[in-house]
Design goal:
Distance between the termini: 55 Å
Number of strands: 17
Strand content: 15-25%
Shape: globular
């Protein structure tokens, strides 16, 4: 069992004022199944790049083995080639038969290697690349968010596969995946880094206990500091009053004062001043003990939402709906025979495999509500969207986000100060506000879209995979928001824990249809 040792690691991006890492030291064992946890923008992907040697840094990283990274960058033209053609380009020395064996562990067919990569679904691509990643021994594998954009079935097969592996560092915000697959956690806290045995839930339970203890200790220290401040102030006043009485006195009131009284008063003043000094030293110790107690505590701010109330109970209904692209006569059906409705206060989850038509349905609803964007055609059946329905939409695509935040706010009619305040509540650093959004991490981009939706009063909120790349803490923050305000929603989301907590009803799209 070898160790990867990080010693005094310091890194800062060129042109930035703040270090991402500063004098960080820790060690991890190479046979661990390690989960990597931290907020968006804290440096998880940056750390993986440092391990891979892609960025210059100060300090030392000692590793006895080779690092490999998921997802791979495809070679030029790779989308139009079969994966079998470029396996050795992705992982030098990779043997095809080993990849086929790993595909079996992922419940996938070897046939995936011999189809043009472009024709594979998100889940199939992920399985091929994971099979390549694990096809050689003696590597420590860096796996960066493998389940984003995957449907529930694909996530489950990836979860079962990783559960039987070791020697990897997994970056994921999916709590179910982390609980199932890891035996240690590496956590980027607000100010520190910690390594701990266990999965996400055991770490979160331990953190909650430690945070509770830290808050209690902080309150105790604050009370003691307040008492000492009062004691210092009072003793200081007494000492000064006593010292002032050395010179000048009323012979009538102090007729018994002797010539030696001045020396006695001076000694008493010094005793009081020593007491003040002792109080100050105790106060300094209490302040020192208090420092750092709350530095890693996560205090997510409760977000706010202003949903509109629609004049009718039913906002939307579909009856035997079939959608496709092209003319009605020749259109290719992407979704067929779908019947469901959304009533006031419901949070309806669309559930089905990738490619079953969930996003197509959302586009059709947006088009019917007056937001046409490559809208699909209604091939048969009917869709009724309430007149005057105001919809707030979060797209799963963030690639269009470019330029400054102030331009984004102006285009969408959002008040910039309130928008930035909301992003701060979602734990985005102020230093990000002056950057081009194209330089944001994927999680930060998704927070921009979520913040814009939260600031838009609407009858219906349509969120298409809103949690992709969103950190664990923000996911829990959003869950609390939705459970508090209970807006009417149509959701596509594959986070199983989020589904169970938020959805009031699930509509199956694909082989099984909901009534």
């Amino acid at each position: 069992m070898a160790q990867i040792k990080v010693t005094d690691l310091t890194f800062c991006y060129e042109g930035s004022f703040d270090d991402i890492f500063e004098n960080v030291s820790f060690s991890i064992d190479t046979d661990w199944k390690l989960g990597f946890i931290g907020r968006n923008g804290k440096g998880k992907t940056t750390f993986l790049k440092l391990l891979l040697g892609e960025l210059p840094y100060a300090g030392r990283i000692d590793a006895p083995l080779f690092f490999d990274y998921f997802p791979y960058r495809l070679p030029e033209g790779g989308l139009d080639q079969c994966a079998a053609v470029f396996l050795d380009t992705l992982k030098p020395g990779c043997e095809e038969w080993r990849v086929i064996c790993e595909l079996g562990g992922l419940e996938a067919s070897a046939e995936l290697l011999y189809r043009p990569f472009r024709t594979l679904s998100h889940g199939e691509r992920t399985k091929v690349l994971l099979a390549v990643l694990f096809s050689k021994e003696n590597d420590f594998l860096l796996i960066d968010e493998p389940t984003d954009h995957l449907d529930q079935e694909a996530r489950e097969s990836v979860k079962r596969y990783l559960k039987g592996k070791k020697s990897f560092l997994l970056v994921s915000h999916d709590r179910e995946l982390l609980d199932a697959c890891i035996d240690h956690v590496l956590v980027l806290n607000r100010k520190t880094i910690e390594v701990q045995r266990g999965n996400f839930s055991s770490w979160w339970e331990d953190k909650s206990r430690r945070d509770h203890f830290a808050r209690a200790e902080n309150e105790k220290h604050l009370r003691e500091i307040a008492f000492l401040k009062r004691a210092v102030d009072q003793s200081g006043r007494w000492a000064q009053k006593n010292e002032d009485s050395k010179i000048g006195y009323d012979p009538i009131k102090e007729h018994d004062r002797s010539s030696s009284a001045r020396a006695y008063i001076g000694a008493k003043t010094k005793k009081m001043e020593r007491r003040v000094g002792q109080y100050k030293k105790r106060m300094e110790r209490e302040i020192g003990a208090k420092e750092g107690l709350l530095q890693d505590i996560e205090e997510p701010v409760s977000l706010k939402l202003a949903p509109l109330s629609y004049r009718k109970e039913r906002l939307l209904s579909c009856r035997e709906l079939a959608l496709g692209y092209g003319a009605k006569a020749a259109g290719r059906a992407v979704l067929e025979d779908l019947s469901f409705e959304i009533k006031q206060g419901e949070r309806v989850l669309l559930h089905g495999k990738n490619g079953c038509g969930k996003s197509t349905l959302i586009k059709a609803i947006l088009a019917a509500g007056g937001q046409p964007k490559a809208a699909p055609q209604v091939l048969s059946g009917e869709m009724q969207v309430g007149a005057g329905l105001v919809v707030s939409y979060v797209s799963q695509d963030t690639s269009f986000l470019k330029g400054k935040l102030q331009d984004f706010c102006r285009e969408r009619g959002l008040k910039e100060s309130l928008f930035c305040a909301l992003l701060r509540q979602m734990d985005m650093e102020r230093v990000q506000f002056g950057k081009d959004m194209a330089r944001f991490s994927e999680g930060q981009k998704k927070k921009v879209l979520l913040a814009a939706s939260l600031m838009t009063p609407a009858h219906l909120y349509i969120w298409d995979e809103p949690l992709n790349y969103i950190d664990v803490f923000s996911r829990m923050q959003i869950e609390e928001l939705l459970m508090t305000y209970k807006p009417t929603m149509l959701l596509v989301e594959h986070d199983a824990r989020f589904q169970k907590k938020i959805a009031t009803r699930v509509v199956e799209i694909g082989d099984d249809k909901a009534p």
